Amino acid sequence: MSRSGTQQGVGPREDERERSSKAELVLTPPGPERRTTAKRQAVAGYVEHPTVVEFTYDTDPATLHERWRAEVGAPPCHMVVDASGTGEVPGPRVAADGGSFAVEGAHPQDLTGLCMKWQDALEEANGRGNLFVAFDSVTALLQYVDLGVAYRFLHTLVTGVHRAGARAQFYLDPKAHDERTVSTVQGLFDAVRRIS
After folding, report:
1. Mean pLDDT on 169-173
2. pLDDT tops 70 at residue 2
3. Which of 173, 162, 178, 104 shows the shortest CA–CA distance to 136?
4. Do residues 46 and 128 make contact, with C-beta atoms less than 8 angstroms apart?
C-alpha cells in the first residue's frame, strides 16, 4: 500500500481522490493540453489564484508563463525553475497582467543546484498566500538520473511542498517506464491520479 492508501501500481479512481492532498502524482501521457487541464482543476479550489512555482525540463519559461496566463489564469507571482540546460534565463520582470514572473535556471544533471533553486522559489513564494507547485516532469528527470537518485531528489521536493503547505502536481508518463519504476515513484505521493 502507498501512503495514499491505494494499492501499489494502481492509482485511485477520480472520485476516491482526497481534495486535501498536498503532493499529487499525475500519471498522464506527455502533452501540454492534459497537464493544463490538471493544473486548471488543481487551482479551481482556491479562493484567489495562487502563487505558482513550476519546474520544467523542456518548455521555454516565457512560453510556459504565457500558456498558464491564457489557459489557467493570471497568478500574482509565477516562478519557474528551468532545468532545460539552455543557460538562457530571463531575469525577473512584471508580467503584462501586473503580476511578477521570474526564472531560475540550472543544468538538468545538477540536482543539488536544481534543489537549491527549487527551495529558493518555494521560500520566495511562501509569503505570498496560497501556493501551487507543478513539476514537469518526473519522466524527464529519469532521463538524466537513475531511479534511486531520482527518488531521493523527489523526496526532498515533496518534503519542501509539505513544509510550505502547498498543493503540488508532479507529472509522469506511465508508458515511458516499467511498472517497478511507476510503483516506486507512486510511494512518495499523497495521491495518485491517472489521466488517459
Report:
1. 96
2. no
3. 173
4. no
Q: What is the 3-class SS of the chain, one letter each residue?
A: CCCCCCCCCCCCCHHHCCCCCCEEEEECCCCHHHHHHHHHHHHCCCCCCCEEEEEECCCCHHHHHHHHHHHCCCCCEEEEEECCCCCCCCCCEECCCCCEEEEEECCCCCHHHHHHHHHHHHHHHHCCCCEEEEEECHHHHCCCCCHHHHHHHHHHHHHHHHHHCCEEEEEECHHHCCHHHHHHHHCCCCEEEECC
Q: Which residue has the higher pLDDT, 49 or 10?
A: 49
Instruction: List pLDDT tens digits, range 102-140.
Output: 788 888 888 998 888 888 877 777 666 688 999 999 999
* Interatomic CA distance for residues 41 and 38, integer angstroms: 5
What is the spatial distance between Cα 26 and Cα 10, in angstroms, rounded to a whole number?
A: 12
Burial 87-112 (b: 16+ CB within 10 A, else e): eeeeeeeebeeebbbbbbbbebeebe
Amino acid 130 reads: N
Residue 156, C-alpha cell as written in the block: 526532498
